[in-house]
Amino acid sequence: MEYPLSEEHQMFRETMKRFVDEEMIPVEMETIGDNGELKPEWREKYHARAKELGLWKMEVPEEYGGVGADLMSLVIVWEQLGRTVAVPTRGLGGIMGPQVRAPLYELSDEMKQQYLYPVLNGEKEACFAQTEPDAGGDPGGMRTTAVRDGDHYVINGTKRFITGAEEADFAQLLAATDREKGSRGGISMFLVDMDTPGVKITTKFETMMGDWPCEIHFEDVRVPVEKRIGEEGQGFALGQRFLANGRLKHGARGVGTAQRCLDLMCEYAQARVTFGEKLANRQAVQWMITDTYVELQAARLMVYNTADRAAQGLVDRTDGFVQKMYADELGFRAADRCMQVHGGIGLTKDLPIENFWRQSRSFRITEGPTEIMKMVIARNVLREYG
């Protein structure tokens, strides 16, 4: 059951599959250091190979020196890399180049010189600061405020679980400029240099995924008006533009994880014998394999169809939510079933299963928890009957 990809996309998928199968999976248990990042020697190797394969700066538009890849090609990359733990799940070890969030392309020419181009050249790093202690899945409840004071804004508040904050040179910060309007025109986006007086990293959280997001406190931080991205009140829409692609990345990654876990389950079930019978002959195991296989077909079609429709300008938020919710949930179910089939060895760090399990569990929360996805989907569906 295959989505009708173009010949070019089919060839690209085969290239990516070979890259993962031959150069990542065989070494995946030795590439990540204790800090959760790619070891320097592997980072250098994968960066070089990414450039050879045309993956470097795939997400960067051609006018800025990138590949300007179409969305389907990106989905193929995210899916294939989702099949391995050779690179960090978040950020993918930067093997496709610097992480550039879409709103940076909206800057004035002067601000691009100060922020966009240094990121593209690897001279600066940015973090995206939206989540707060009391406003994660509900950005409308954001308490960090930006109050206009002449030609500056004064920012006060706290952001939590901000990935890459310690290494970042600046933050793309979302703050409330009108709390009464909330996410409907009351949130604006700013560029805040991390060395600005009043900006302080107060906490580092060690997560089960192996990364270290931070809490950032802002106290009377003065930011010039020209460092606001877009018009006042447009911040939430700009942030959603970045998160929309992020949700498609979630879906593609869930598909890749489910595929690898299905492969591992089937291989082990054929090899493992208990009570004189292969696990593959046990109905309980067969049903776990069947459920994963069937759900994987559905998830892949959802993700590919969403990418295809998005490229045509036909996709809406519901499509993105549906594929993220389904594929994220499937990635975890597949990893959980794979662990169950493997028994005790599946709990060890000798195999990638526990890593898939931990990462997939987190994706059911990040960039939109499943429950909020369901709430929005239900609201949009019911609107058709109202």
Provide a descriptive summary of the structure in words.
A hairpin with a 2-residue loop joins strand 2 and strand 3 (152-162). The longest helix has 37 residues, at 235-271. The chain is built from nine helices and ten strands. The protein has 386 residues and is of the alpha+beta class. The chain has three domains: 7-99, Acyl-CoA dehydrogenase/oxidase, N-terminal domain (Butyryl-Coa Dehydrogenase, subunit A, domain 1, Orthogonal Bundle), CATH 1.10.540.10; 126-233, Butyryl-CoA Dehydrogenase, subunit A, domain 2 (Beta Barrel), CATH 2.40.110; 240-383, Butyryl-CoA Dehydrogenase, subunit A, domain 3.
Task: Describe, in short, the structure shown.
With 386 residues, this protein is of the alpha+beta class.
Query: Considering DSSP H and I runs of 4 or more, what fraction of the residues is helical?
Result: 40-55%
CATH structural class of the largest domain: Mainly Alpha
- How are the strands ordered across the major sheet? 1-4-5-8
What structural class should be given to the helix and strand makeup? alpha+beta
* Shape type: globular
Strand content: 5-15%
Q: Low-confidence stretches at least 5 residues in length (pLDDT < 50)?
A: none
In CATH terms, what is the architecture of the largest domain? Up-down Bundle
Number of helices: 9
Report how far the terminal alpha carbons are from each other.
36 Å
